[in-house]
Amino acid sequence: MKIVTLEPQEFDNFATKHKYRNYYQTSNYAEVIKNFGFNVHFLGFVDETENLIGATLIIFKEVFMNNKVAYAPRGMLFDYTNSSKVQELVEKLKQVLGKQGFVLLRIDPLIPATIRDNKGNVININSEANIIMSNLTAAGFSRREENLYFESEKPRFEAISLFNKSIQNIFNNFDKRTRHKIKKANTAGIEVFKDQNKNLSKLYEFIKDKHDKPIEFYQQLCNSYKDNIDLYYAVLNTEKFVVSSKKLYESEMDINDELARKIQDPQGGTNKKGLINKKMESDKLINTYKNDLVLATELLKKYPKGFIVGGALSISFDNAAFLVIEGFDNTYKALNPNYLLKWKMINDYYSRKYKYLNLNAVVGEFAENHQYTGLNEMKLGFNTVVTEYIGEFDIILNNFGYNISKRAIKDKIDT
Fold this sequence. Notes:
415 residues, alpha+beta, Aminopeptidase, 3 domains, 9-stranded mixed beta sheet, 13 helices, 40% helix, 25% strand
């Protein structure tokens, strides 16, 4: 086996046909990441008959005294089921990269270990996963901690909305609360549109405090992936918000008056306690709807043409769509713009005959309450399946260089 340098087009020709292809292992992603402190290499793995049997994009940076750490995002693209080939690959990586000052290589191949339902129950196991992990560790890779949260470079668990039913059946299979929130957002006047100009400034306002990437990163994504990028915005139509708030308030007032009449009716029967409880709940709703109406009226005066309350950025790749980042104005969380955004995206990609929409990360703790419970409930409520990947593996390429550099090596490489 030989390790060779590939031209970007050569790499793409191989990578886009590989079993484990993904949008990180592309020259597009290389164009993005090299603007943010990383160098890039496209490596090819050639057998004795000069056939290209594997390839990877690696991104790398110097950490200490010319020593470099490298990461193959969602790579390498290789047949890990062949133990002798994996062993040979590791030997060549040490020979070639180790001599070039590379001390560590991290990989996290896009290889599923399990498929789970939205309750976290395993519904399918990749029969090759254990073989692959065993071959990697036997060849000298060490598996990093099997994390449940966001300790890794890329998510170990992702929620995927499959387009294997009619669009109506897809909606009907959402969690009841999810369907309610979608309808509530629509009734409240939330409207979703696709920004053809891909103006990221408003989206970045929603995400800048949650994520450490500058707006230039997302602008570079748009420049590199071009027509494969979609930017969605959720807008609050303030006129519709006033109309819907007024309608809900007036309807609840009618209900409340009727309940009051029944409570005061001497012929009302023995169910006074039940009526009183309903009246109390109605009183609370009236207060909520009244506050909404006041807010809606104020917003209509201030924003007569409406205003943006949320947004999402996605990438299309291999006949599927991938949610990259999303955010919304927490002031209007109760209007559920993020739910309607995802439903709009599902509709759009379904109509384009895509296979699925990947809603990005969830955490691997499904039973206990934790700080990400809300995130899981939102994404899993769309009747998603969860893909659990095999995780991250590190290989030390140069022991001496690694030992003198390890204090400078951060836990995460791709920041």
